[in-house]
Design brief:
Length: 142
């Protein structure tokens, strides 16, 4: 079975309640339940943290034993050299996902410490970005 780890950064635990005009009305738990139904051939693990070091640890923990990591480092995307270094350090390919179109927002969101080390990035397509990233890993494996 294809093994995919989803790792979400700070404030993404509030999806559904948080700035719904930007991030939508759906909670990540509801979305994940649907994602699991849509991809029965994938074993997902899910980790969310508001703490930078815990995200680095999760990237390391999943970085040598999964087929893919879908990573939304949230605000740490724009600030964290440590998360960028962790993505560069591991073997598992990483797809960076952002729910909103970070390029259409404030200038500080245009900087990513992760993009150059990821296989690719999906931005601005809402929660669907996680499904599209999953599809890419599935197509690569088959
Ligand atoms: C985000 C975009 C980031 O700029 C922001 O800090 C987030 C969420 C997104 O998914 O659109 O928390 O990563």
């Amino acid at each position: 079975m294809l093994q995919i780890a989803i790792i979400n950064g700070p404030n993404l635990n509030l999806l559904g309640k948080r700035e719904p005009g930007v991030y939508g009305h759906e909670s990540f738990d509801d979305f994940l339940a649907q994602l699991k139904k849509d991809f029965p051939q994938v074993a997902f693990t899910y980790f969310q943290s508001n703490i930078e070091g815990e995200l680095v640890q999760a990237i390391q923990d999943h970085g040598f034993n999964k087929d893919g990591i879908i990573l939304n480092p949230a605000a740490y995307t724009h600030t964290s050299v440590a998360i960028g270094d962790a993505v560069a350090a591991i073997q598992t390919p990483v797809i960076e996902v952002h729910i909103s179109n970070v390029h259409a927002r404030e200038d500080f969101r245009k900087i990513s410490h992760v993009s150059a080390k990821a296989v690719g990035s999906i931005v601005g397509l809402g929660l669907n970005g996680y499904a599209l990233a999953t599809e890419w890993f599935v197509s690569k494996k088959s």
